[in-house]
Write a structure and sequence with these properties.
By secondary structure, the protein is α+β, with helices and mostly antiparallel strands. It has one domain: Nucleoside Triphosphate Pyrophosphohydrolase, CATH 3.90.79. The chain is about 20% helix and about 35% strand. A hairpin with a 2-residue loop joins strand 1 and strand 2. The relative contact order is 0.28.
């Protein structure tokens, strides 16, 4: 059974241009990377758990604030290169938290060193124009932008 993950894709329009809210992955592996080092706020969920509720929970854990109260649309399920299944929900929101406070996880770094440290799941999040987000998002998540564009009638 593939691992299941769910996430939220916030979008807005700035001077008519589509922008999306994405997060830079935390930890030493990603620290010096920018292209293909960003993700939508997302996380895994268990069988029987509602994917939308899981997506909202994961957003709050990674952003440190609740997801915007809004009407969300389903963008569908996307198979990631790892085999994971990512279910995505999107909404238009002008999200602007005062700060990002992500949850952390233990990571052995450098790998094989025996040194375990707590690192944030994400270290920052920002609004990006959709063409820039295509370059920054991990490759498996760029189809989310296509699906959003189709739903918004911008393709």
């Amino acid at each position: 059974m593939p691992v299941k993950s769910a996430g939220l894709l916030l979008y807005r329009f700035s001077d008519g241009a589509l922008e999306v809210w994405i997060a830079h992955m935390g930890g030493p592996f990603w620290a010096r990377k920018d292209e293909r080092a960003w993700s939508i706020p997302k996380g895994e969920y268990d069988d029987g758990e509602d994917p939308f509720e899981a997506a909202r929970r994961e957003f709050a854990e990674e952003m440190g604030v609740p997801a915007p109260d809004a009407e969300y649309m389903s963008l569908g399920e996307f198979r990631q290169p790892s085999g994971k299944r990512l279910t995505v929900f999107a909404t238009e929101a002008d999200f602007a938290p005062a700060e990002i406070v992500s949850n952390t996880f233990p990571l052995e770094w450098p790998r094989g060193s025996g040194r375990v440290q707590e690192v944030p799941e994400i270290d920052r999040a920002e609004w990006f124009p959709e063409p820039t987000a295509r370059i920054k998002l991990v490759k498996g998540q760029t189809p989310l932008l296509d699906a959003l564009g189709e739903r918004l009638g911008r393709v």
